[in-house]
Iron-containing alcohol dehydrogenase family protein (Ruminiclostridium herbifermentans), 1416 residues
Amino acid sequence: MSTSVHRIEIPTIMEVDSNILENVGSYILRAGIKKVVVFFGDGIRELFGEKILHSINSKSQLSTLETYDYDDIRIENLMPIAFSIPSNAEAIIGVGGGKVLDAAKYIAFLRNLPFISIPTSTSNDGFSSSGCSLIINGRRTSVHAVMPFGIIVDIAVIQNAPMKFIYSGLGDIVSKITAVFDWYYEENNKAARVNDFAAMLAKKSVNSIVRMPYTQVTEEFFLKEMVDSLTMSGIAMQIADNSAPASGSEHLISHALDKILEKPQLHGIQVGIATYLMSLVQQHRYERIEKFLSDTGFFNYVEGLQMRADDFEKAIDLAPTIKPNRYTYLHVEENRIKAKELLRNNEILKRILK
Amino acid sequence: MSTSVHRIEIPTIMEVDSNILENVGSYILRAGIKKVVVFFGDGIRELFGEKILHSINSKSQLSTLETYDYDDIRIENLMPIAFSIPSNAEAIIGVGGGKVLDAAKYIAFLRNLPFISIPTSTSNDGFSSSGCSLIINGRRTSVHAVMPFGIIVDIAVIQNAPMKFIYSGLGDIVSKITAVFDWYYEENNKAARVNDFAAMLAKKSVNSIVRMPYTQVTEEFFLKEMVDSLTMSGIAMQIADNSAPASGSEHLISHALDKILEKPQLHGIQVGIATYLMSLVQQHRYERIEKFLSDTGFFNYVEGLQMRADDFEKAIDLAPTIKPNRYTYLHVEENRIKAKELLRNNEILKRILK
Amino acid sequence: MSTSVHRIEIPTIMEVDSNILENVGSYILRAGIKKVVVFFGDGIRELFGEKILHSINSKSQLSTLETYDYDDIRIENLMPIAFSIPSNAEAIIGVGGGKVLDAAKYIAFLRNLPFISIPTSTSNDGFSSSGCSLIINGRRTSVHAVMPFGIIVDIAVIQNAPMKFIYSGLGDIVSKITAVFDWYYEENNKAARVNDFAAMLAKKSVNSIVRMPYTQVTEEFFLKEMVDSLTMSGIAMQIADNSAPASGSEHLISHALDKILEKPQLHGIQVGIATYLMSLVQQHRYERIEKFLSDTGFFNYVEGLQMRADDFEKAIDLAPTIKPNRYTYLHVEENRIKAKELLRNNEILKRILK
Amino acid sequence: MSTSVHRIEIPTIMEVDSNILENVGSYILRAGIKKVVVFFGDGIRELFGEKILHSINSKSQLSTLETYDYDDIRIENLMPIAFSIPSNAEAIIGVGGGKVLDAAKYIAFLRNLPFISIPTSTSNDGFSSSGCSLIINGRRTSVHAVMPFGIIVDIAVIQNAPMKFIYSGLGDIVSKITAVFDWYYEENNKAARVNDFAAMLAKKSVNSIVRMPYTQVTEEFFLKEMVDSLTMSGIAMQIADNSAPASGSEHLISHALDKILEKPQLHGIQVGIATYLMSLVQQHRYERIEKFLSDTGFFNYVEGLQMRADDFEKAIDLAPTIKPNRYTYLHVEENRIKAKELLRNNEILKRILK
């Protein structure tokens, strides 16, 4: 019935804390899973493989059927692996960065198995969302997969990940401000229907961290908040049944940069800059965003990356064509003009973009 | 299967904004509902009845089958009304404070109809939770009912509600800090299993508001955040399938006061004081709580209520017996002793309690 | 989304076999339940109490918190019991006939606990449906409750129940033929929407038994088929989210008789006769129904009950007023006239009704 | 919770009747779908394309985005098509035999779109089940896909399909008798857990048709019953979350024949013969099966197919290796010996197998 309460899916296992990789086995077993297949991203096994595999295989009732070192997101290569996995597998575990998580998540989807997500860096909300990004017919494509059954994030691991991943995560989080604003803009222009609960979660996810006191971004309490926020962002998309609560015009700029550039920067890095830019165009909460990206050291960090204003200019023009069915601020020409002017005149943008 | 992703229910309609009572009809119709029964709390019809009923009945496809002025939460009186409601009713709407919302919510549950919650004051998270508090066999009892299908909160209305309701809402929100801490304490003592996602939502709900800048508590942006936070708290309970993420030792003190006192204060008023007390016992985030309750004017407000330390002392001793199956800080004697000492020695508590 | 697959609920425990009362404990434990409250219908404890309670309490992990001898379906009396049940109860078990099952089912609904249905006679499909029939404001009323979490039917027990219960069960089963026909009639008259899957289950439930060979109705294989059919009928209603697949004009006549008569006969007895009558009015599969009710001995049995044609005549006129929103054959005057003529002229009806 | 009622998915659209292809558009629209992509099996567009496409495109709000003539079940070929389907598609429709239905069903699964199944022949229960059979790494493989959102079967079309499809459908239906018997056998040997509700549906599905009177198998009423039975069989598998209720030792023989033979016969043809054979091995309801397969003309039909006893003998030996984790009658050597003796000595088998 249209009048039944809306049902959504959330992870059954959710553990976010320091030094918990040795508990992975207990978490899995407690959820009733006994036989798993584990995918490690390149180089990840060396770092965490022993700890994780030991915590699994030291349990008498729990066992690892197969392990892979894998980072390939071309669907034609995923397929044969997905269907070669033993029929008695009860769950797929992915450990590492974005690529292996996307690969393992899609394999879990194809085999109708629960997926357990163990990110070793949290540069975006992919580890907690139902979508994934694969290479299909040679092109990077966002496809539907499955909501993670489990999310296990060891903050001590995130802490020791390269700074670029932390800054990318912060860039992705702050983007919810402009994304949600674009979403309401679409609704006001009859181009979309906002799911208010999803919008609320997305806003809460960013507000709780941008308003939080901290001494340095690598401190445990701050990173835990970041991971929680990225997780809520992933769930907000699931509730909305689309990416709108987490991805607006700022994401379109980043997607456009991915097309334009030989070597794009990390998703969240590009998104963070685009978020500051779009908040100025939207004239919405830009002081807050500026303060957050300055205080955290995000701006200083990206200043060293030699990114070019020309590329952003091209990306702004390309942005609306990425998702022609949407109607964000950048789908309106005057806003694209405004955005390009800001690239030239805004002090911060002038400083961080060459 | 135990390994299926966890499904939860969330409201389909969720609208939180200023001056939206005139849109109630559109929200309902958009959700596919055509025939409704409306319950107003005492005195509420005079204030908002015309606006709401007009917005409903002005729609050609939408109609009001019956309206009630009702504030009685004795189950023996609810029953006959519930089963006298016309069989073609498609939804039950409750408008007003805690009592009418609980009554209407329970009637919706008994008739297996969607419930639409329109609080005119948000002194606690009842408007967004699946539970309700009724008088059964003469005693106030918390019973299971149904998750609201719709939540519609007009911030302009909340703004004009007496300050005691706003302070009560703030007191209920801040209590998530001690409640979640008690929950993890229970888990560490093998007396409960924390649902990490519910705990995260509860923490986000309070963190986003206690860290938020504002000039006065009655400003729209601040109240919207409060309402969103109370809503998330209601949902967190639904995810946990119990009240633990939103209700710990601080709530036990308030429940105990309800038993002890002739005229208890508003739930959230009592809870707010008890939260500050318990945060000192738990030695967890008490500076944050103290700052929040001071800055918002909560402490100054309650100072005028002539509440008595003796009653709190009795309540502390009674607290563990309220929920004997739980294991909060107050279920341990030394913590009860510590709490009672704080009543006598803590400067703020000495000031606000006679 | 309106385009999501339709989700329905089915029992987790379903055991239908001979001499299985001693396994009740194992079935419950296997489903993860540890603490139960048991309701016995009047006189049922003497017959089966020891066997059932022993099978529960002999399990070390499983225990009975409370037991009741209960047959009262007045809601004002159910209420206090429902809310006095210990908070650590994990399931409600009902053992006996229609009344105790309805009472226990409603108590389970009020307490949001799983309900386990153990009928000792299967005179209708109540043991497997989500609805129940209570006395509210002094009148017998059908209310929404909860789908049984478990259905356990010991065929050996059903076998030894008085014949009237078996014939009543057969009468209720055969009624699916006229009920489904009425439902399609309603759809053709734009007064309802048939859920084709529910209709199919209802038809299968009756077809599998009316076409089945047997030597006597009390043989195990035949009774197992009857119980399975009644179970499917209960589930068909749940899928349709209303009683239409299992209850048409023939049920309206029975409901009307309940109002008219001092001492009505068993539901299924009245329904069976009304089904034969209505199949003649509908001119649909009446030979099949006549053969089934003759061969099973149903007609011979009811002939001894001294039921009166006059009462059926009154019931036919009253029938459409019982459910004014429906549009069955009996909602059309010419069919009521036809039906009343048949009471006078049909050989079988003349024989079984005085 | 383990104690929540079990939720299953059933089709939202289910229409089984004669001459209903012209209503396909109305059925789809009524379910809230507006834009569809249609896959026709080879040669199917010529037969039914115009009628179906007209019924869709004649609706102003409904439109066909793309149509394909397609019968390829190699996953590497499905992939690119699946992801080239326009992003505004709201449902995938498959029209034809087993291959196109499997292909379209999998494409719907990959794109997370509802699948509408319009079989033009019903030689097995694939049109109503969530699984499908694809060619992966060159081998025929059963994979998880999605439960059909809609099932539309035009009996007039089924009536005119070649007899082999009807006999294959009957062979697949009767196999539920041996399949369910094998399932209980597995449970008694602690090798499986029977889902009693799934087993009941499977039994009802076959009992309602084997006990049904008819003059010839091509008559509408009989074929409708067959289609309903195959549909229930598909749903029974979905409830059990595996194929056990619909597929036992008799299916293993058929799968083995598929491996052995250059040109296997239709699935249901092989299964029907194997069912008769296994019912003799199980000594369970073989008279009923013999009568049904004789009366319907199944045995006479297969007699003309020149199938060889030697192949069945090889298949019997190979059978247990097809699903090593199961424990059917054929997983026990003495039963394989018994089965092979029957091939040589049973009069009917001697007649129909060369």
Notes: DSSP finds 15 helices and nine strands in chain D.
